[in-house]
Amino acid sequence: MTLLGHTFRHTFHLAKHVSTNAGGESEYAAPEPHSCRYQGATKRIVASDGSERVTEAVLYTAVEVHPQDYVYPPGADLDDYGAGRCPLRVTPRNNLAGELDHYEVYL
Questions:
Q1: How many percent of the chain have pLDDT more than 70?
Q2: Are the C-beta atoms of residues 104 and 53 closer than 8 Å to each other?
Q3: Phi, psi (5° rounding) for residue 96?
Protein backbone atom coordinates (compact mmCIF):
# COMPACT_ATOMS: atom_id res chain seq x y z
CA MET A 1 0.00 0.00 0.00
CA THR A 2 1.32 3.36 -0.97
CA LEU A 3 1.51 6.25 1.47
CA LEU A 4 -0.66 8.27 -0.91
CA GLY A 5 -3.21 5.49 -1.43
CA HIS A 6 -5.91 7.23 0.58
CA THR A 7 -5.75 10.21 -1.82
CA PHE A 8 -6.34 8.10 -4.96
CA ARG A 9 -9.94 9.18 -5.56
CA HIS A 10 -9.84 9.56 -9.34
CA THR A 11 -9.78 6.95 -12.10
CA PHE A 12 -7.59 7.09 -15.18
CA HIS A 13 -7.27 4.56 -18.01
CA LEU A 14 -3.94 3.12 -19.10
CA ALA A 15 -3.31 1.54 -22.51
CA LYS A 16 0.00 -0.32 -22.27
CA HIS A 17 2.37 -0.14 -25.24
CA VAL A 18 2.46 -3.57 -26.90
CA SER A 19 4.71 -3.12 -29.93
CA THR A 20 5.81 -0.87 -32.76
CA ASN A 21 5.33 -2.09 -36.31
CA ALA A 22 7.75 -1.67 -39.23
CA GLY A 23 6.03 1.59 -40.19
CA GLY A 24 6.78 3.11 -36.80
CA GLU A 25 3.17 2.98 -35.60
CA SER A 26 2.63 1.94 -31.99
CA GLU A 27 0.09 -0.67 -30.94
CA TYR A 28 -1.57 -0.51 -27.54
CA ALA A 29 -3.55 -2.91 -25.35
CA ALA A 30 -7.14 -2.07 -24.42
CA PRO A 31 -7.33 0.74 -21.83
CA GLU A 32 -7.72 -0.49 -18.24
CA PRO A 33 -8.99 1.62 -15.31
CA HIS A 34 -6.70 2.39 -12.34
CA SER A 35 -7.00 4.64 -9.30
CA CYS A 36 -4.98 7.83 -9.00
CA ARG A 37 -4.78 11.34 -7.65
CA TYR A 38 -5.01 13.85 -10.48
CA GLN A 39 -4.23 17.53 -10.18
CA GLY A 40 -3.61 20.33 -12.59
CA ALA A 41 -0.03 21.51 -12.39
CA THR A 42 1.50 23.78 -14.99
CA LYS A 43 5.21 23.09 -14.72
CA ARG A 44 8.18 23.23 -17.07
CA ILE A 45 10.04 19.90 -17.12
CA VAL A 46 12.64 18.06 -19.16
CA ALA A 47 10.82 15.29 -21.04
CA SER A 48 12.16 11.76 -21.51
CA ASP A 49 13.54 12.72 -24.94
CA GLY A 50 15.56 15.59 -23.40
CA SER A 51 13.39 18.43 -24.66
CA GLU A 52 11.79 21.03 -22.39
CA ARG A 53 8.00 20.79 -22.18
CA VAL A 54 5.18 22.33 -20.16
CA THR A 55 2.93 19.91 -18.28
CA GLU A 56 -0.77 20.47 -17.80
CA ALA A 57 -1.29 17.98 -14.99
CA VAL A 58 0.39 15.41 -12.78
CA LEU A 59 -1.09 12.03 -11.98
CA TYR A 60 -0.03 10.06 -8.88
CA THR A 61 -0.59 6.30 -9.05
CA ALA A 62 0.69 2.99 -7.69
CA VAL A 63 0.53 1.45 -11.19
CA GLU A 64 3.73 1.32 -13.21
CA VAL A 65 3.49 3.61 -16.24
CA HIS A 66 6.12 3.83 -19.00
CA PRO A 67 6.76 6.87 -21.22
CA GLN A 68 5.58 4.96 -24.33
CA ASP A 69 2.22 3.94 -22.73
CA TYR A 70 -0.97 5.86 -23.52
CA VAL A 71 -2.78 7.57 -20.63
CA TYR A 72 -6.39 8.74 -20.61
CA PRO A 73 -6.78 11.25 -17.74
CA PRO A 74 -9.86 11.18 -15.49
CA GLY A 75 -12.99 12.19 -17.40
CA ALA A 76 -11.47 11.53 -20.85
CA ASP A 77 -13.63 9.85 -23.50
CA LEU A 78 -12.11 6.43 -24.26
CA ASP A 79 -13.71 6.41 -27.72
CA ASP A 80 -11.76 9.56 -28.64
CA TYR A 81 -8.16 8.50 -29.33
CA GLY A 82 -7.03 12.14 -29.12
CA ALA A 83 -8.28 12.41 -25.52
CA GLY A 84 -5.29 10.46 -24.23
CA ARG A 85 -1.58 11.04 -24.53
CA CYS A 86 1.83 9.60 -23.82
CA PRO A 87 3.37 10.89 -20.58
CA LEU A 88 6.03 13.59 -20.85
CA ARG A 89 7.86 12.09 -17.88
CA VAL A 90 7.30 9.29 -15.36
CA THR A 91 9.10 9.54 -12.02
CA PRO A 92 9.12 6.62 -9.55
CA ARG A 93 9.02 7.79 -5.91
CA ASN A 94 10.23 5.87 -2.86
CA ASN A 95 8.80 5.82 0.66
CA LEU A 96 10.78 6.51 3.85
CA ALA A 97 12.07 2.91 3.90
CA GLY A 98 13.53 3.35 0.41
CA GLU A 99 10.99 1.07 -1.29
CA LEU A 100 9.00 2.04 -4.37
CA ASP A 101 5.85 3.85 -3.23
CA HIS A 102 4.16 5.43 -6.27
CA TYR A 103 4.71 6.97 -9.68
CA GLU A 104 4.34 10.61 -10.70
CA VAL A 105 3.10 10.80 -14.30
CA TYR A 106 3.43 14.21 -15.94
CA LEU A 107 0.96 14.88 -18.77
A1: 96
A2: no
A3: -65, -25
* Closest-CA residue to 94 (of 9, 22, 2): 2
Bridge partner list, 94? 100
Reported pTM = 0.86
Contacts of 30 (CB under 8 A, 6+ apart): 15
Element at 93 (helix H, strand E): strand 89-94
Rounded CA gap, 76 and 57, in Å? Answer: 13
Q: What's the Cα-to-Cα distance from 28 to each of 5, 90, 91, 93, 103, rounded to whole Å?
A: 27, 18, 21, 25, 20
CB-based contact 56:71 (threshold 8 Å): no
